[in-house]
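User: I'm new to structure prediction. If I give you an amino acid sequence, what do you actually give back? Let's try with this one:
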Amino acid sequence: MQRQKAKSDEWYTPRSAVEAIVPYLKSFKTIWCPFDTAESNYVKVLEEHGFNVIHTHIDDGQDFFETIVPECDAIVSNPPYSIRDDILEHLFTLQKPFAMLLNVSGLYDSKCRFELLKENPVSHLYLYPRVKFFNDEKGTSTSSPTYQSAYVCYGMLDHQIELTKIS
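Assistant: Good question. You get back a string of structure tokens that encode the predicted 3D arrangement of the chain. For your 167 residues, that looks like this:
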């Protein structure tokens, strides 16, 4: 089944939001970034911190739902929000630690997502202040969304809720 991402899903993550998850990844060596190109801040920042990073992106013909999962210790990215239910469901079937940066507004609003998150032991890394995403490669077109962002994590954090400041 081919899922289409919405045009509005192509927002990039600033370095500060990627740096926020790094301290929680120290027990992992190889990270898969399934929604990222080589130019992604996830790829750049994680490599700078010494992680072996495998990146895949649908624009390169590597659909997250059809790609054979590479040998990795954890999965980290900012996925397309328009298909986050499908992404979360697929992630749980993989049984690998993950951290997905998501919009927390309405995270538990849908019955499907509520049940999925209730049945699986997730934790959250809340970022303050709001993440200023950007949608051009130069980072000149930014958006400070009206919602708070947090990493929804599985098999990664020591506490159910963690809080961190970003710059």
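You can read the tokens as a compact description of the fold. Here is one thing that stands out. The first strand starts at residue 30 and ends at 33.
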